[in-house]
Please model this.
Amino acid sequence: MPKTYQNPRYPYRRSDDQYAGTAHHPAIIVGAGLVGLAAAVDLASRGVASVVLDDDDTVSFGSRAICFSKRSLEILDRLGLGAKLKEKGVTWHTGKVFFRDRMIYDFDLLPEGGHCWPAFINLQQYYAEEWLVERAESSGLVDLRWKNRVVGVEPADGGAAVVIDTPDGPYRLTCDYLLAADGAHSSVRKALGLSFSGQVFLDRFLIADVVMQADFPSERWFWFDPPFHRGQSALLHRQPDNVWRIDLQLSSGCDPEEEKRPERVIPRLRAMLGEEIDFELEWVSVYTFQCRRLERFRHGPVIFLGDSAHQVSPFGARGGNGGLQDADNLCWKLAAVLKGEAPDRLLDSYDAERIPAAEENILNSTRSTDFITPKNEVSRLFRDATLELAERHPFARALVNSGRLSQPAILTGSPLISDGSPDHAEAIPPGAPCPDVPLVRGQETRWLLHLVTGGFFGLYYKGPEETSDSRRECARLAEAEPGLSVLAIVSKGVDVADGEDAWVDAEGLFAELYGVRSGSFLLIRPDQHVAAHWPALSHTAVTEAIGKSLSLE
Model:
């Protein structure tokens, strides 16, 4: 098979800890995949050192997770990968749905302008991992240990102990917190005797990375019962390097190893692509639909992220994107705890916030599975009738489920989110991630999420009718709350006083999306979720909300 990507090999190095008996570290991360590396880089960006243990010496083989959602792109941008993602990735926001021999409708996930990032960027997972390794190594705060396989985990005094096997033999570490990001076959999960609850479906799909020159657009194409694969489903996605992801549904009783053989795969692809297109196989795998999770993600000092905590079927791009949101949710909290800024109980909110998100992903993934692969003739008749109806009537398209695509979690019911709401129901609610909007100051234009990064931020909005001095109000609040940065945002047409550090909502998108009025104040968490929204600034309310966000109450 051809190779458009050469996996880097990272050297095994004997660490000083292997001479020291049992060494202690505040944070150990098991798994140097997408989620574990993102967690390490996130902690480093907050000044927290970590040790990362991985049993391999390279990044992932095969493209694996390829669809990075808008929210994941914002997270990875904050971690320093933004420029590389834009340069290398394939941007897309449109798609087509086919039934049998015809297209029945198309869709646009981001029809309006005013966005820093597209709906999705397609990129092979190994690129993102390689860039995260570079970020981790350059931070000076991440100790990456390759060929370090975790073979045991046990409780220790106020933390956890980890037994590690290496080419030089075993050694032992202890830590305050152990982050298990070691995937679906997690050794940490097995060491603790934990199991998943949920469903494992009989349905299987073939994944093929195909290298070819094709003039297909950069869109998501999904087929139900196509003429080249009767009675089954298929998916086509473009990736960089002229690599195309093709998913083909297989019969439930098939032999996965037999189906991966080139002599079985190539005829299927030839039937789909046509005799006139030359292609070569780069990577082939077979996966089984699974929708399951751990009952709890936090087990004392051990916290599970990504596939080690939950598994979903791949249609909808909810696996890798959900794992990145896990890291984004956990790391600012863990940093606050390790720095003594918050109590250990803050970490309990990881379960409170990420288990509902995982449940939402599992629900959507299960529904997608049931629609894509009907389990009986009645279900198939209903699905096919829905597809026929969707071709003629737009309202029916909401019933078609070829994989509900990943959406960011809204932290409804979180114990960390304060009361308060925008002035109109369509606006972004507390608990949601901040929508990015362009802001202007003089000749400079910046994106909001590039300004509110690192810690807690307050956003003070000044409209045309506001007569108070926003600069004075914001300065007083920032002085009273040393851990809070305050950003003044003013409506277009409002005069900005000389020396006033304010940004102009030149396109009106901030006011529209956030539902603010003159004098409104929003509190933004370190993970860029809205913690609270008030129609008027109250210093007491802000102080209480910060305390609530850190579980200080």
